[in-house]
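[User] Could I get a sequence and structure tokens?

[Assistant]
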Amino acid sequence: RLSLSLSLCPLSLPLSLPLCSYVSRRLNELSKHNPLWKTLCSKHWLLTDVERLRSGVSWFCLFKRYYRDLGRYIQYYPVLKRAWEQLKSFLQQRCPRMIASLKEGATEVELNDIEAQISCRLPDDYRCSYRIHNGQKLVIPGLMGSMSLSNHYRSEVLLDVETAAGGFQQRKGMRRCLPLTFCFHTGLSQYMALEPAEGRRMFESFYPCPDQTAQDPSAIDMFITGSCFLEWFTTYVHNVVTGEYPIIRDQIFRYVHDKGCVATTGDITVSVSTSFLPELSSVHPPHFFFTYRIRIEMSSSASPEAACQLDSRYWKITTSDGNVEEVQGPGVVGEFPVMTPGKVHEYASCTTFSTPSEYMEGHYTFHRLANKEEVFQVAIPRFHMICPPFREPVQKASTSYTSRFDDHDDDGEYCDGDGDDFGDLRGINMAALEGAWCPRHI
């Protein structure tokens, strides 16, 4: 009937006036239809009936209230709000002490003041996330993940916007870069490029890696970690809440486990997860540092007579340029674990390569406790170690600029990273790096 009334309007103006009045009144009623606005409130602001009742207003008024405050973020808010809620729910169950380290959201005025302070626009997805939670207090463990070896520890804090603004970079080589994270122990930070300068793309996140072979000390290589804040943050949260990253001693450890990287031999299952350490790596020279965590488990249904002890290990290592190396030796990291039904043994080791991707595979040799003459091998599944995409600074790459990954050419001149000129928030800490070289393939 509304369509018919509207179609009659041009035909007879005197007749159409009351009809148009009726249509206008009806559209006004429909525009405040509560079920419609409930759907929109749920879709864009993730609001529930409980929150609507607590507000004491209609769904229509509630939508307007949120839109006035957060309307500029409407395309980002539901994604980021859901990610934050999932992360907090997970932390409450697995890492409860981290919940207390989260800061309340920043106000629109505070974010505007930060933009004025740094004379640069913050991306809307970043602003939206910081309206929900203004990062984390400067405490350990860091929300953005940890990594621990025998002589090296990293834990990255998600910086609040005020602290991040204090570390905003204006110097050559890092111009217009805002720190996202910071580690007290290594000085490592991830940065976000607020402008497309010096070989960086606008809003991408990265770990800086200074190139000391360049005559210009401001030449900074980059390990890329995300194309924008939204991708960077939601990918990390997904890995946390889906169990991709293990929780060890109430901390999130950024080991990645390929679900196909599992091998079972008889009653024993071996699985492997890996992690790339940018703070101990460099593009120039090609020095890529990885750590891997191995889990050895004997089935709980195994016979007690199946109990055994690990004697030795064998590795076959293949790099992306085709080189193959074989390594064997006694035990694992100096240990000779005994496996009994239901027993789990985990250990972490590390290795370095001169190519950005490689894989390892091998086997352990065991003997039965009941009969030392009975010796057998347990397969270690093939696992790949691949560093993040990396890029040269624009100064060095101006003649032949390339974005680099697995097929990286290793013939150039390279150097170890040194972040001593990074100001208060450093890129790489050489003191930590010098003591972190570990025996290979143990």
